[in-house]
């Protein structure tokens, strides 16, 4: 029981935290392009942070659920609807058999993530369920999802602790101009002083030659001391390569494991969503920060993730206590217009009840 695809959308793939430990053999990491949206989705549905989700690019699929489960949609706003009604983003939502999830016009951002409680029933390849399209490994037969495909749920959950409280503020990806904070290096000394100034002061545009491997930018030429060639070395997520032609390329999730072009800087981890949620035509500028600042921002993000997990899982008083017929408001501890939320099980059905004192 899981999800049946009536259509696959533009590019819908299974992605998790990535295929680590195999770059020495030439196997790219892959994984989610927007790590923050990806993690938030899993936190909302009670999964481990690295559990596989659907990555949905620009134009989403249409899927029918064949089992009850808790899901969450994060990342780009692609006008998602559930049974024809707008589906909230960044909130845990209970879906039932027969429910239909569809997507409409892209409003902001580029990639959305659909997390499902318990994850998807897909065999890992080299320790990961991520799809690497070029080698056709991982995910569902190493390819994008399409019409009549089926993804099973591995361990679906019809409810979760504090289900009604599992929500965070949606991220806004509507800005068409983004500043990417970078740590300079490791080959920033391969560029002239004017070249480095150009890189940090110039305005660049995301081109159509951008994909999961890298984002190519058009803009001012960054001047090298000699040229852009080096002995090949490792490439990290967010590395900013600049070949001899002087135009930046930001390396992304499906990047090659090594490369022979100079790298002037690396986008800091917390800013990766700013480039992976950018579309062709969006404007990019760079700002240099210290590695210490980059680390502090990353640790703050990690702390926030842990706080969210604890808040979703901790007991909230008697919020799920059954309500007996005719119970007095005073017994519920209500006063001054307060309200409390209860869940009532009746004839096998779960009802959410809001009890509120109304003064006449």
Description:
- This protein is of the alpha+beta class.
- It has 3 domains: about 1-165, no CATH class; about 175-295, Cyclophilin-like (Cyclophilin), CATH 2.40.100.10; about 320-360, no CATH class.
- The chain is built from 4 helices and 22 strands.
- Strands 12-19-16-17-14-13-20 form a 7-stranded mixed β-barrel. Strands 7-6-9-4-1-11 form a 6-stranded antiparallel sheet, with no helix packed on it. Strands 2-3-10-5-8 form a 5-stranded antiparallel sheet.
- A hairpin with a 2-residue loop joins strand 21 (about 340-345) and strand 22 (about 350-355).
- Helix 1 runs parallel beside helix 4.
- The protein is globular and about 65 Å long.
- The termini are far apart.
- It comes from Yanshouia hominis.
- This is Biotin-dependent carboxyltransferase family protein.
- Keywords: ATP-binding, Hydrolase, Nucleotide-binding.
- InterPro entries: CT_A_B, Cyclophilin-like_dom_sf, PxpC.
List the helices and strands and how they pair.
Layout: E1 2-7, E2 11-15, H1 35-44, E3 53-57, E4 62-65, E5 69-77, E6 81-82, E7 85-86, E8 92-95, E9 100-102, E10 108-116, E11 150-152, E12 177-184, H2 193-201, E13 204-210, E14 214-218, E15 229-234, E16 239-241, E17 249-251, E18 258-261, E19 263-267, H3 272-276, E20 283-288, H4 291-313, E21 339-346, E22 349-356
Parallel strand pairs: 12-20
Antiparallel strand pairs: 1-4, 1-11, 2-3, 3-10, 4-9, 5-8, 5-10, 6-7, 6-9, 12-19, 13-14, 13-20, 14-17, 15-18, 16-17, 16-19, 21-22
Helix pairs in contact: 1-4
């Amino acid at each position: 029981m899981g999800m049946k695809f009536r259509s696959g959308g533009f590019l819908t793939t299974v992605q998790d935290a990535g295929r680590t430990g195999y770059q020495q053999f030439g196997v790219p990491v892959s994984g989610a392009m927007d790590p923050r949206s990806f993690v938030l989705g899993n936190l909302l549905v009670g999964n481990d942070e690295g559990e596989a989700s659907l990555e949905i690019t620009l134009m989403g699929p249409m899927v029918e659920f064949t089992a009850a489960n808790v899901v969450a949609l994060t990342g780009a706003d692609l006008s998602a609807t559930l049974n024809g009604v707008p589906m909230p983003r960044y909130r845990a939502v209970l879906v039932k058999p027969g429910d239909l999830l569809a997507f409409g016009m892209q409003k902001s951002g580029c990639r959305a993530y659909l997390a499902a409680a318990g994850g998807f029933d897909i065999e890992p390849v080299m320790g990961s369920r991520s799809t690497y399209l070029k080698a056709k490994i991982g995910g569902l037969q190493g390819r994008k999802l399409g019409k009549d495909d089926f993804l099973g749920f591995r361990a679906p959950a019809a409810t979760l602790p504090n289900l009604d409280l599992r929500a965070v503020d949606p991220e806004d990806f509507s800005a068409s101009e983004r500043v990417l904070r970078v740590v300079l290096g490791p080959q920033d000394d391969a560029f002239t002083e004017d070249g480095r100034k150009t890189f940090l002061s110039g305005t660049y545009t995301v081109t159509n030659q951008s994909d999961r491997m890298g984002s190519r930018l058009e803009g001012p030429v960054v001047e090298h001391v000699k040229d852009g060639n080096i002995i090949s070395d490792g490439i990290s997520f967010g590395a900013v390569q600049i070949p001899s032609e002087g135009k930046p390329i930001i390396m992304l999730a499906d990047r090659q494991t090594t490369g022979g072009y100079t790298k002037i800087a690396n986008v800091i981890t917390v800013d990766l969503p700013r480039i992976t949620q950018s579309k062709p035509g969006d404007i990019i500028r760079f700002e240099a920060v210290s590695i210490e600042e980059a680390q502090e921002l990353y640790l703050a993000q990690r702390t926030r993730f842990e706080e969210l997990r604890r808040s979703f899982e901790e007991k909230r008083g008697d919020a799920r206590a059954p309500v007996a017929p005719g119970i007095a408001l005073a017994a519920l501890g209500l006063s001054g217009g307060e309200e409390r939320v209860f869940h009532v099980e009746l004839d096998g059905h779960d009802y959410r009840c809001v009890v509120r004192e109304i003064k006449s």
